[in-house]
Hints:
It holds the Pfam family DUF3194. This protein is α+β, with helices and mostly antiparallel strands. It has helices at residues 4-10, 15-33, 68-88, and strands at residues 41-49, 52-60.
Amino acid sequence: xxxxxxxxxxxxxxxxxxxxxxxxxxxxxxxxxxxxxxxxxxxxxxxxxxxxxxxxxxxxxxxxxxxxxxxxxxxxxxxxxxxxxxxxx
Length: 89
């Protein structure tokens, strides 16, 4: 019996997948609150090392559509939630 496939099926996602998933979720949250043309600048930094996820979101966008600080916080939370779901699969 080959146990390699069993191990692969139960393996955690690789770090690159974790980072990409978190980044995609954060960007999706930002652009659900703002049109892309309204965002002056943004940066999503995701680090996943030794099982620890760090997400930092910077957003420079007009305050008349939504509160940029709140959207940045929500984007970071969305990134963490997406990674949690990835590990739950």
